[in-house]
Each structure stands twice: as C-alpha cells, then as structure tokens.
Amino acid sequence: MKVEIWSDIACPWCYIGKRRFEQALADFPGKEDVEVVYRPYQLVPDAPATASPHRAWLAERYGPQSVAMDARVAELGLAEGITYDFDAALHANTFLGHRLLHLAETEYGAEAQGRLKEALLKAHFTDGVDIGDRAALADVAVAAGLDRERVTAYLAGDEGAAEVRAQLAEARELGISAVPTFVFEGKWAVQGGQEAATFRKVLDQVADEIDERRPAPVPVAPAGEACADGSCAI
Q1: What is the CATH classification number for the domain harbouring 123?
Q2: DSSP category for residue 189
Q3: Which structural domain, as residue segments, surrounds residue 117?
Q4: pLDDT one-digit tens code per residue, 42-82
Q5: Residue 221: what are its φ and ψ, rounded to 5°?
Q6: Distance CA 33, CA 94 (A)
Q7: Nearest residue to 37 (alpha-carbon basis) of 177, 185, 158
C-alpha cells in the first residue's frame, strides 16, 4: 500500500496529523508493506525569503484570533508528544525545505524522507530554526542522515526545483486545498489531522479494498482539522 501525504513544513496540523497517522500505522498488521512518502504543499507560497517572527506574522494575517489558534494547537500537540514554541518559531518560505524532502526521497528513500520530515517540523515548530536558510537546512538534513556535501551542493543550485513545482501543480489538479491530505493508493483521500482510530479504520478498509479476496467499500471519513490557504482550524 502506498500512502502519499501532501503537507507543508509550516503547517501545525500537518505535524499533529503525522504523529496520529504514525500511531495508527504502528498498530496496523500490514505496516511492513506500507510505503509512506511526503508530497509538497505551500500554504503561503509567496512568503519572503527573509524569515520573520511567527507571532507577528500570524497576528497580522488573522488578528486577535491568532493567539487562540496557537494556544489550541499547542495544547493538542502535547497529547501527541509535540512541543510547539510559537514564540521562537519563524515565518519562512518552505520551498527549499520541500526541495530537500524531494532529494531525500529520490536519493535516500522513503524512510530517510520520513526522518527528514520529522526533523524539519521539529526544527520549525520547536527549535525556532529558519527553515528558509540553506545553512540551517543543511544542519537539519545532516542530523537526519543526509550527506552534508551533497545537500550543500543541491541547495546551492536548482536541482529538484522543477520536480517540486510539478508536484505543487499536481496538488492543485487533484483538488487539494487543505493539508494534511492523505492519499491512499492514488485513489482515496482523507483530509486533516484525523484521530489515530480514524486512520487505522482507513488503513484496514484500503487493505481490504486492494485485496481481491476481501472487497470492501471505499473508505469515507469526514474532513478533519487542517490548514487551508486562507486559514487554520482553531
């Protein structure tokens, strides 16, 4: 089974959704046969190259409700083992990070890409790292197991840029407008940071659907909490 997770590095619900999906997958009997890959999505594609404080940017964009947004996500994150430090977090363009994730998948494999995704989310939301900075990204990548010389050369040029742009366009063609969105076997989509129990149910249903001996209905799950181009669930 292949699961493609369309998400952004700067999406708080993508972090929660990742952890909940991993919890469901850990208890899934067929987990060894599940390939998980991450696909790019940019909530703020026009974010400037120069980073700025997250709190100030969010307040400018959403007004007073931004405080409640951060507080609720931080509380929910604790239940998933995530520490959100929104005072330290920086608003930055995520395109370079998505290029790096593409490198990890194509040259190191899905498992390495998953490690890098986790490292980038932690760097952004917990450690206050500027994920739009090449040197900072290289440090995160090396800690996740990638080769520094290769990463530095890769980020210095345009390798992977066209491929990432093509995948961003593919997300639009698929009608993805909020993340995280989990696409199973290229056919079934589940949106939002669903509870682990919901993800487990979908995994079971998809496994049955692709097993000719045990046909099952197409899985349907109401949209969970997510971030869209204009807002995040609070």
Answers
A1: 3.40.30.10
A2: E
A3: 2-228
A4: 999 999 999 999 999 999 999 999 999 999 999 999 999 99
A5: -135, 130
A6: 30
A7: 185
